[in-house]
Write a structure and sequence with these properties.
Order of helices and strands: EEEHEHHEHEEEHHEH
Helix content: 25-40%
Radius of gyration: 18 Å
Number of strands: 9
Structural class: alpha/beta
Shape: globular
Amino acid sequence: MDRIGIIDLGSNSIRLVIIDIKENGAHHQIENLKESVRLRSGTDAQGFLTKEGINSAVEMVFLFVRFCHARNVTHIIAVATAAVRRAPNRAELIERIAKHTDVTIQVLSSEEEAYLGYVGLVNSVTNTSGLMADLGGGALKMIGFNDRLNQNSITLDFGSVSLMEKYNLQDLATPENLHALEQFLDETFAKISWLPNYPGLIGLGGTFRSL
C-alpha cells in the first residue's frame, strides 16, 4: 500500500490531502486539511509575490510536509496554480520551498489545472453531461462535457479573490459595484458560444462549497 500526500498551493488557500492507495488500486482519503493564505492577495501591483506572501506559503508548506512525515506518507506531490503561475518571481517561492522541505513544486498550466479538475469530477459524480465550473481565487476554469468526455474548455483570468478586489466587494458591497460585476460577467460569458449547450452546472472549489 502507498500513502501519498498532495499539497495544492492555490490563490486563496493551501490544501493537503493524504490518500492511501491499495494494491488493487482502491483509494481512501484519510486527511483533508486547508489553511487560508491568499497568495493572490499577497501580490503587488505588478503581480509579484510579496515577501509576506512568500514567507506565509513557505511556512505552511513546511508544516504540511512535517505532518506528512508524521503520518508516514511515502510520496508527496506538490502543485501550484494561478497566483504562482502568474507571478514573475515564482522561482523564489519554489526555490525556498525546495530548500526548506526537499519538495519540488510543479506549477500547473491553466490547461493542466482545468483537465485535472475535469478528471476528478467525472470520476466522482454520476452526471454524464454538464458544465464544470472550478472557481479559484485567481481563475475560473470551465469544461463542458458530454458522455463524460471533454468537449469544450476555457480558463478565464479572474477568480473569487481577484473579482472581490477589482470591484471592491469586501464587507458590504454597494449596489453600483455589484451591478458593475454582474455586467462584466454577463459580457464575458456572452462571448463563450458553447456555454448554453450545457444547462447543468457543477461547481468545484471552496467558494462553491461555502455557498
